[in-house]
Write a structure and sequence with these properties.
Layout: E1 2-6, H1 10-29, E2 33-38, H2 49-57, E3 65-68, H3 80-90, E4 94-104, E5 111-115, E6 135-143, H4 148-153, H5 157-195
Parallel strand pairs: 2-3, 2-4, 4-6
Antiparallel strand pairs: 1-5, 5-6
Length: about 200
Amino acid sequence: MCISINSVDSKSAAVFNEKLYDKVFHALIEDKQLVILCIGTDRSTGDSLGPLVGYKLSNTPIKNITLFGTLATPVHAKNLCETINEIKSRFPNPYIIAIDACLGNVESVGTVCLKDKPLAPGAALKKSLPPVGDISITGVVNISGYMEFLVLQNTRLYVVMNLCEIICRSLYQSITRAQRDVRLLKNDNVFKNTLR
């Protein structure tokens, strides 16, 4: 199932944020380590969504998350497997939010999709890469169907930046709210236990 958000539809944004909050909240309740994996490369406009999201998130005050994939150190086809292995070795119980650009139909360009399943990175370019993520967030940057490599190379930066803003805003709002609510809940439980 895909929950989509469009930059001009505030109702879809509310539904998207609530779904993302719910996923993050339950992960934190289970004491999972939040890992945000932003996939892509800064060498292609259309494929730069992941690194741009990573760069922007690295400059926000979200605490207690681990971030992979920025403009300075992108995660792409050549180092994705290595990065997945690093995550597995560093975190015994990670909750991975995988983020990547994708191609779609004309009507879906400029939308963001949240799925309850792993990301299939490199699918547009027919690359065989391992699926990754407990949930995935994709931004539709351009139209699929023909010469995808050139389509990604000729994607408007405006579309990518707009998607980046939407994704970062949703992640910031959902994660900080979930962290606050879990902290309050756990503190409340500790307080109740001390009264027994």
